[in-house]
Every structure is written in structure tokens, then in C-alpha cells.
Amino acid sequence: MAVRKLKEKTPVTPAGANISFKEKVGYGFGDLASNLVFAAVGMFLLFYYTDVAGASAAAVGTIILFSRLLDGFTDIGMGAIVDKTQSKHGKARPWLLWMAIPYAVAAVLLFSVPDLGPVAMLVYIAITYNLIHIIYTAINIPYGVLNSLITQDQYQRSQLNIYRMLMALIGTVLIMYCTFPLVQAFGGGKQGWQLAFGVFAVLSAVLFIITFLTTKERVKPAGEGESHTNTVPLKVGLRALMKNKYWAIMLGFAVVTYASMGLGQGLNVYYAQYILGNPALVGPMGLAGLFPMMVGILFVAPIIKKFGKRNAIIGGLLIGAIGTIIIAIDPSSWTLVLIGSVIRGIGGVPLIASIFAMLADTIEYGEWKSGVRTEGLVYSAGSFGTKVGMGLGAAMMGWALSFGGYVGGVAEQSASANATLIALFVYIPLVFSVIQIIFLYFYKLDKEYPQILKELQERKA
């Protein structure tokens, strides 16, 4: 196929140009539902495995990485399934209804490790860890795709993503502050963790069903009617994906971004206990980064609209680096950690507000470039990057702790273990930020998107 070139820019009215407040909030509830479980996986699961269930940090880290790699391939399959789904509720929405209860059940099993021998315990961990991620794939891939089916308008997509990420942050804060009190309220120990996540799981299922009830799919493929998307063979879709340079950039960016997040989420509980010397600081420590995001995400839309998603994220990464440098002055100072975490949180606002909207924009670029529209495959392949990144970050933490001589359940760690925690918390994030900026340097879709959308609308006509 000949290389397509952009024509001169002219205005166009995209599908879903005006989305109601109710639908935006309803869509956001889906990520609140996800994070009532998945934020806990990032923040507490490794701690639960090592300090409550008594599993080896290195072994668990290896299980997590290989499970995430496997999970990435299930993402591709789920994306293809979503593209072929035909129901009266659409192609993405029905999966929220079908998977809500299985997701809740798998969440309870995840935090129900029985008293078994070391090998049997690791087998149970591997099975339940993979189970929750398979079900998460089956509900989260369609949820992510839903953004691109609700609207084609760049600004509305950014707004949907803002509501999504605001709800995700609320879910993260709830998990951060309510998990330990709830565990203790239920008696502590393994029973306390199991019952606490029974509560979170039920609430998660209810919220997913609300998202299903309050959203609507509007976007149709250009040129060949609605059935076109549902009949694209997997090989054709994959070939089209390989021509989508902006998707490839976002895939690499997502791996690095979520490796950083996967590392940071699970680290706070260790850092508060052993570097700051006060495990009670894990909540305030997390809130110091999340609260600026929760406030900032309410005001970031005009900034994104003016400067573009890419430029806003680069600016945020530079701000976040300043926060990291402040922490590096004295990593054991709670005051500096607090100030640096707040600045990191401010810098993270454009990133969390834009990353999924940027991935959704690559769908139109891919359709314009190849003539093939596969929302599910594009999003699932991007989700592959996020899960591999999270797995890589969690595995890095597990391996590094083991290499540094970390021993679970003791009052104090060795000097090498503490040095490892400081390196993971302070210096590795700076490396990740540099790599993220390099990826974004090559992303130019913000400027090209309006004309691409116009040409797609002309094909429909």
C-alpha cells in the first residue's frame, strides 16, 4: 500500500463530541473498581506474600515477572476477542457485566494463601496470581477499549481519561488508608487479609456493573460499516499494528512508565518501615504523591488542550525529577521525602491524565495508515506493555531485595538491604524518567490527529 500523506487541515466534528457528566463519572467508576483490587496487588501483595504468608521475595518476584509475560500474550488474544464480539450491548461493554463477579472471586482467592509447605505455597501463589490477571485482562481490555468507542474527540477522550484516573486515584487512596485498619478490624493475620479483600471485591463488582449501565458505544469504523471491525482476521490486524509507529512508541513508553509505577507502588511499605523507621508513614507517604494528582487532575485539561498531551507529560516528568533530587539530599529525612513526593505527584498529573488517551489516538492513526480498525487489538497490545512493565518493576524489586540481603519480618535490615531500598526509591526513577522523555521525543501524533480524523470522516461519507 502506498504511504499515506496528510492533506491540508480543515475542521471536523468527531463522533461523541459531547459526553455527559453522568457518563464520564460512570466510565471512571470502572477504574475505581479495578484499583480496589489492582492497587492492592501493587502496594501490598508482595508484602503479604513475604511478611504474612512467609514466601521467598526472589521466588515471588520471578513468578510475578513470568506471569506478567504470559499475561501480556493473553492480552493480544483478548483484544482479538473484543474485536470480534457482537452483542446488543456492543463489543466492549458486555465484558464488564460478564466478568465483574469472577473478578471479585479471584481477588479473594489472591489474598487467601493457605498454610502449606514452601513449594505448595508457591504453586498456589502462581495459580491464583495468574487467575486474577487472566480475569483482569478479560475485563480491563474491554474497559480500556470503551474509551475509543464512546468518542473520537481528542478532548473528550482526555476528559474521560481524567475521570478514569481520578477514580483510580480515589481507589488507590482507599486501599492505602483502609487496608491495614480493615485487616486489623477483621482480626489480623491471614483471616484479616482475606475478609478485608472480600469487602473490596464486592464493591469492585458493583462498580463495574454501574460502568456497564451508564456508558454507550458510538464510534463505528470508517468506510465499510460496523461489521468490518468484527471480521478482521488476527493476522491482518497484527500486520496493520506493525505499521502503526505511534502505537509502537506508546508500547515502549508504557513498558517504562509501568515498570516505574510497579517498582514505586510496592516499595513504600518497605521504605516507610526500614528507611524512615515508622511503618505508620506508609499512608501519608503514599498520599503525599497521590493527593496532588487528585487535585491536579481536576485542572489539567486546559493545559493538555493548550500544549498537547506529549508536551504536558514531558514538562511533568521534569518537575517529577526535581522532586526526586530533593529526596536524594537526605533519603532518610521524612520532611524531604514528603516534599519530594508532593512534587513528584504534581509532575505525574499530565502523565496519568493522558497516557490512555494517547493510546486511544493511535487507533485512528492505525486505521488511517492501513485501512484496518481494531480497537481491541491496539489496546490489548498496549496493555501488554503496561503489564510487562508492572511485572518488570515488581520483579526488579523482589530480585533487588533478595540480592541486597532483605529478610522479611525482622525489626531491622542490613546496611546493604537499606542501601538497596534507597537506590530503588531515589535513583532508579530518575533513569526511568530519562527513558520516558526519549520515547516521547518521537511522538508527533498530537499535531497530526485532527487531519487524520478529517480524512477518516471523509471515507465514511
TrEMBL record:
- Specify whether Membrane is a keyword of the entry: yes
A GO cellular component term found in this entry reads: plasma membrane
- Work out whether the entry's keyword set contains Transmembrane: yes
- Compartments (UniProt record): Cell membrane
Q: How does it sit in the membrane?
A: Multi-pass membrane protein
Q: Name one GO molecular function term.
A: symporter activity
Q: What is its main location?
A: membrane
Give GO terms for biological process: carbohydrate transport; sodium ion transport
Domain Major facilitator superfamily (MFS) profile, first and last residues per copy: 245-461
Task: Tell me which PANTHER family the record gives.
Answer: MAJOR FACILITATOR SUPERFAMILY (MFS) PROFILE DOMAIN-CONTAINING PROTEIN (PTHR11328:SF24), MAJOR FACILITATOR SUPERFAMILY DOMAIN-CONTAINING PROTEIN (PTHR11328)
**What's the protein name?**
Xyloside transporter XynT
User: To which species is this protein native?
Assistant: Halalkalibacter akibai (strain ATCC 43226 / DSM 21942 / CIP 109018 / JCM 9157 / 1139) (Bacillus akibai)
Q: What is the lineage of its organism?
A: Bacteria, Bacillati, Bacillota, Bacilli, Bacillales
